[in-house]
Amino acid sequence: MSDKRDLLILGGGLVGMTLALAAAKKGLSSQVVDRADPAELTAEGFDGRASAISTASWNLFGNIGLRARLEPHGCPIASIAVTDGMKPGRIDFQPEPHEGSLGRMFANRELRLALFEAASAEPLIAWHARADVVERERGEHGVSATLADGTVLEANLMVGAEGRQSPTREDAGITMAHWDYSHRAIIAGLVHARPHDNVAWEIFYPAGPFALLPLLDGPGGEHRSALVWTVAEKDAAGVMALSDRAFTAEVAKRMHGIFGEVSVEGKCSSFPLSFQHTANIVEHRLALVGDAAHGIHPIAGQGLNLGLRDVGALVEVLADGMRLGLEPGDAQLLARYEKWRELDSFTVSLATDGLTWLFGVPGKLPSAIRRLGMGVVQRTPPLKRWFMDEARGMSGELPELLKG
């Protein structure tokens, strides 16, 4: 007997699994397919891979029942310091006391553990891990995916959530604007002598941004941060090949002693940086979410949050349609989802791309002009407020799931 569900979510990462859980809260059933092994993704170890969760995204996690599970593992971001090479003229973004934090930092492992545990206990989610999709079909009355073992999964709507290299997007022939930054992000976990005081640092160098993101102290009281260091692609192999001592020395030089003595814990990883934005995020019985729809530079830590806003909007559109008697693959609903998300995703993508180019211009004069502009922002409360609202994800038309 066929187990036809509302959604066929291809990709069970942070965005895909959040979508399945959010949909379940609205009574929508799903098949979730992912190639990865959950045990590998949640293995013990501190490696610095972490995500900044904005206020709006934290509201989403709370509204799908994960707040209590995640709260002990999140490090509040009390303020954000933005500086051009640690020269005078930085911006300090700090919310009013009644507004709480600017967001929370979570180790990706903790986010996955919470999502996977909740999905395993949710009867409306059928989770197919370590599974390869060999064929996708989108017909007039439904969609299906054939797995490598011959299993055929059926649903009303297919959702591509596999990330930047989404085979579902490619299979649908959706066109995409794309360019390579010729940079690579190096990710590492840092342990340092001084506390970070819940401050996230974004230090811009001509070669690329150098971000220090606060994490909770380790089990032995060690002060920890996540490092996201952007280097030119031509230099990346050399940086990754450095000895632990040499790598630490390079990191410490760029930190200017703000956290005292520093060491690297765990293994480093890296990934290439590029820009991509699809011409459209829906097709016949298909919707794209997260990096499958828009891959942006990690310069402002907005990539995952952008994907979670996709989740909130898509679930709200589908739930509204269900109340009107429409099924999830209805073209009217998909058109509404695309229209809702197009301005926000394009604006954030364009802003992060612009910042990348703006701070990548070397020389004393460009640096002086940038710092002058930063000084204007620092002294203009309404402008700072706008930037903070954007960082917290609290601007524009928010889906209900992302409201407090």
From TrEMBL:
Entry annotated with the keyword rRNA processing: no
Transmembrane intervals: none
Superkingdom, natural source: Bacteria
Keyword field: FAD, Flavoprotein, Monooxygenase, Oxidoreductase, Ubiquinone
Matching Pfam families: FAD_binding_3
Keyword presence, Oxidoreductase: yes
Protein name: Ubiquinone biosynthesis protein UbiH
Organism, scientific name: Croceibacterium salegens
Organism phylogeny: Bacteria, Pseudomonadati, Pseudomonadota, Alphaproteobacteria, Sphingomonadales
